[in-house]
Structures are given as structure tokens and as C-alpha cells.
Amino acid sequence: MRNGGRIAAAIDVLTDVLNRHQPVKSAARDWGKRARYAGSKDRAWVSGLVLDALRKRNSIAHAMGDDSPRGLILGALAHAWGWNIRQIDDAMDEDHAPSKLTLEERERLVMAPDPVAPPHVQGDFPEWMAPMMARVFAEEAVVEAQAMAVRADVDLRVNTLKVDAEKASQPLRSAKAEESPLLVNAFHIPARDPSEREASLESIPAYSKGWVEVQDAGSQIAAAAAHAQAGEQVLDYCAGGGGKTLAIAAQMRGKGQIFAYDIDGRRLSALIPRLKRSGAHNVQLVHPSEPTQLVDLTAQMDLVFVDAPCTGTGTWRRRPDAKWRLKEKQLEKRMQEQEEILAAASAFVKPGGRLLYATCSFLMEEDEDRVAGFLATHPEFTEEDAAESAIASGLLTEEGAAAVKRYRGPTGSVRLTPRRAGTDGFFFAVLRKAG
């Protein structure tokens, strides 16, 4: 496909995303089925442009004076991809391209960003979230949000149950992986040009052998804060796909027992092939259809890890379409769920044990507020220094240790963001039960 046809396709895909409320992956997949002639590079190009239009939706719409799919896609070419008027003109002259630029579009495409636009425009976040952004980030709300509107790196955790970082690095060179600046047993693949196809990690032998797992660095640091010890009894209460279960299993060197539970049995089942590939033999799945299994763990756990369901604001770089679907009622629902989950999970912590609460959200309403609310009703728990717990694991580099110390809150919890640490937005707090 030539660029003109790709631009037209991007407008079609974005139309489905905005008007039919489809996730980008689904809309792009549907378009791909209709456009059998499109190759993998074409699909990557189209998806990349749509995602960047969504990442910067507010600022592009403001600059273009147009929030239609056409306006957003054309604006993304200029304001996200850096195309000049001549490049856009040339593409619009090609076969199967959209109609040529109007005079107003041409003028808008060369305008500089508006330095006095409202924060939600400059920062590309929903307007209703402005008070929450200001609460957590104060005068840095815009720059923090802008760092969430760019493409994310791919982070890899080395599975030390099978291999060390040095040996794992050799086969990762083909994917242009670099050592993580934050973690000693991790690598990252820098974000590529949005028009380029992502490397297929599944095709790398190191992945199929179980040497590495895809896991954001912020998530890895939160798992490190668990500081799990060999021989401990651990419950991953909201295990989901099992990323943190596997990370904790590696910390424990395969010794002790990890119970992985999730209310969604289908998500839990997805962990089975990952467990097989990882070589972690000390993990037991606790299926929601067998509640007695869970009850038997009451007050028995050295560690309960709660990666709570949340709004996912910390993953906006990877899922920009979700940013615009988020509503206040959804946040309220998540906050209530988090309260209930924390209270339920705490029952499994033994005296002297610890409870780690984490979210991939940067909102204080889902983070510090939920921890404070829990502590107010559970006086047997006290908050500890989560930064020091992460450092004590030995999994952080000097730069990683400095980051968690720098972004440790007054009560000991830690919040990482793309701007602060180059990770997804992540929050974690460590709570200790009286012995």
C-alpha cells in the first residue's frame, strides 16, 4: 500500500474506534480482514498512526479545530509524526487517498502548539480528570501527562529459574534489547518508530524456552517490593495472567509455595502454559470454583500480593483508547472493588506477615486513599517503607534504587510514572500485620 491508502485506512479504523467504541486491536483486525491486500508493514503503519492520534487526541483536536477521525489522523501526521505539508500533500495526491487538504487544514497543520491551552488539552487527558491530575502531580500535571502520551518501551524480565541475565542477553540482541537501567535481571527494547512493525518476541528462542517474560519494569519493581523469600507461603490474590506470580516464584528460587488465585477462572487458566514454559514448580492454582481451597489458606500466608483491578491509567501509553473510555462511574466502581478486595485479602495474612497492595494507576483515589481507608478499619496493620523493601530484594540497580527512594511518598508507598522512571504508571504499598 502507498501512504495515501494507508491514511484512508487509518481514518476508517479510527472511525470504528470512536463511533462504534471498538478497541484499536479489534478495529484494526476487522479492517485487516477486509483489506486482504494489506501486508504486515501496512497494518503496523495504520495501527501506529491510529494509536498516536488517540495518544494526543485533545491536543491534536485543539490544533486542528476538528475532532473528527479525519482531523485527528491528519493532525497526528503533522503533530505526532512530524510530517511537513509537502509530505502530506504528496500522500493525498495518491490513488485511494482521502480528499485533498482544505485551506483551513493546511493552516492548522503548521500551527505551533497553544501554550495557553487548558491542562487537559496540553496533557491529553479527559477533562473531568483535571482535579485528580492536579491533586497527584500539582504543577507537573501537564508534563507528567505528556509523558503518558508517547509510545512505550517493551520490558523483559529474565527468568532466573532457568538462566542468568548474561546468558539471556545473547539471543535478545536480534530484538535490539538493552540492559534495563532499573533492574539487574531485566532488559528493555526501546520504542520504535510508530510506523514500524514491532518485533515478534514469540519468535525469539529465548522467549519460547522460558528464559524471558514480557513484564513492564514498574510491575517488576512492585514484585521486587514483595521481597519474597525461599520457603515462604505466598498468595497472589488477583493473579490474572500471572506475571507477578512468575516473578515472585523466581525470587523464591522455586522453594516454598505460591497460591495463584483470581476470581476470573479463564484468566487463571491462561497462566498454565506460562507456568510450564517458566519451569516454576512451586505454584498452585486456586480456582474460584473450589472456594474451600482458598478458605484453607486463611491466616496462613507470609505474603499476600494484591495487584488490584483498577482504571489502568498507568497503561495509557500502551492502551490510549482506554483513556477516552474511562468514566467517573467506572472509577467509583473500581474504588469500591479495591476496598472489598483489600479487606478480603487481608484475612489470609498470618500474624507478622505482610500485604502488598499495587495498582497500575496513578490516581490517589485508587492508591493512597484506599490504603488509608484500609488502615483506618484494620488497626492490626501498619504501613512499611515499600522503597526499602524493593531495594532489599537485590533486584534493583543503583538507578532503580534511587528512583524508588526519590518517588517514595510520606507514608512509605511508591509511585512510578513514565516521566519519573520510564515505566508504566505504578503504585505499591507494603503493609505489615502485627505478630
TrEMBL record:
Positions in coiled-coil regions: none
Query: What is the designated name of this protein?
Result: SAM-dependent MTase RsmB/NOP-type domain-containing protein
List the Gene3D superfamilies hit by this protein, alphabetically. Vaccinia Virus protein VP39 (3.40.50.150)
| BP GO terms, sorted | RNA methylation
Query: Which residues carry out catalysis?
Result: C360
Q: Where does S-adenosyl-L-methionine bind?
A: D262, D307
* Residues annotated as domain SAM-dependent MTase RsmB/NOP-type: 144-434
Q: Signal peptide: which range, if any?
A: none
Highest taxon above the source species: Bacteria
GO molecular function terms listed in the Swiss-Prot or TrEMBL record: RNA binding; RNA methyltransferase activity
Similarity comment text for this entry: Belongs to the class I-like SAM-binding methyltransferase superfamily. RsmB/NOP family.
Keyword annotations for this protein, in alphabetical order, are: Methyltransferase, RNA-binding, S-adenosyl-L-methionine, Transferase
Q: Which SUPFAM superfamilies match?
A: S-adenosyl-L-methionine-dependent methyltransferases
